[in-house]
């Protein structure tokens, strides 16, 4: 059988595995859209996905493991939509636009996986901060132990992401322009 997709570690999966995972993912997202993760049961999920509980446990340890997998996958997709993460250090106003647009491109999934509460936003921004830093350090390893650069990236990522999420129901273009303007003024001073 020909490989169909890759998992988060880059390993190939055959079509049956991919189909099972897609069914689990879709069922989880449907359930997660209407209830918190702690209220979703494996039984409910597997019935909705039309798979056995045993099959579920071949792929994931529990509901939280599945949730974390999907969160990480969504974050990796978001980072993939940022063309120049290193701009966070060299052109932060443009980087703020790229980060915000990446969130917009990912759309609805983030509001399901990370609902409107400070705990979810904290998890999201902390994970995003760590992943973006890793991407920057791959290109610029000399910044890995530079406290000033780490603080700068954290402030930028956490501030932009949290602010965009907080005001996502407002005029998003104006929110993005305001963020970019604030960052431009801060960099000039």
Short characterization:
The chain has 189 residues and is mainly alpha-helical. The protein has 10 helices and 2 strands, in the order ββαααααααααα. A hairpin with a 5-residue loop joins strand 1 and strand 2.
Q: Which features does this protein show?
A:
189 residues, mainly alpha, two-stranded antiparallel sheet, 10 helices, 2 strands, elongated, disordered N terminus
Describe the structure.
This protein has 189 residues and is mainly alpha-helical. The protein is built from ten helices and two strands. The chain has a two-stranded antiparallel sheet. Helix 4 crosses helix 6 and helix 6 packs across helix 9. The protein is elongated. The N and C termini lie far apart (60 Å). The N terminus is likely disordered.
Choose one word for the global shape: elongated
- State the low-pLDDT regions, or none: 1-6
Q: Could you tell me the mean pLDDT? A: 87
Extended strand count? 2
Query: Order of SSEs, N→C?
Result: EEHHHHHHHHHH
Percent in helix? over 70%
- Specify Rg, calculated over alpha carbons: 19 Å
Proportion of beta-strand residues: under 5%
> How many DSSP helices?
10
Strand line-up across the major sheet: 1-2
Which class of secondary structure composition applies to the elements? mainly alpha
Largest sheet: 2 strands, antiparallel
* Spatial gap, N to C terminus: 60 Å
How is the secondary structure organized here?
Layout: E1 3-6, E2 12-14, H1 15-32, H2 42-49, H3 53-59, H4 63-80, H5 87-90, H6 92-106, H7 108-113, H8 118-139, H9 147-166, H10 172-188
Antiparallel strand pairs: 1-2
């Amino acid at each position: 059988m020909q490989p169909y997709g890759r998992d988060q570690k880059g390993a190939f999966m055959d079509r049956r595995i991919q189909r099972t995972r897609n069914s689990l993912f879709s069922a989880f997202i449907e359930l997660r859209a209407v209830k918190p993760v702690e209220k979703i049961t494996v039984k409910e999920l597997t019935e909705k996905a039309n798979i056995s509980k045993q099959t579920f446990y071949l792929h994931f340890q529990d509901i939280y493991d599945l949730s974390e997998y999907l969160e990480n996958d969504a974050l990796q997709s978001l980072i993939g939509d940022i063309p120049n993460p290193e701009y966070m250090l060299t052109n932060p106003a443009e980087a703020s636009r790229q980060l915000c647009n990446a969130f917009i491109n990912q759309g609805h999934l983030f509001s399901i996986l990370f609902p409107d509460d400070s705990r979810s936003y904290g998890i999201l921004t902390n994970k995003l901060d760590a992943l973006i830093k890793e991407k920057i350090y791959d290109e610029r390893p000399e910044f890995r132990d530079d406290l000033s650069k780490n603080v700068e990236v954290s402030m930028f990522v956490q501030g932009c992401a949290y602010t965009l999420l907080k005001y996502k129901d407002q005029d998003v273009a104006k929110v993005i322009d305001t963020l970019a303007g604030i960052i431009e003024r801060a960099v000039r001073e």
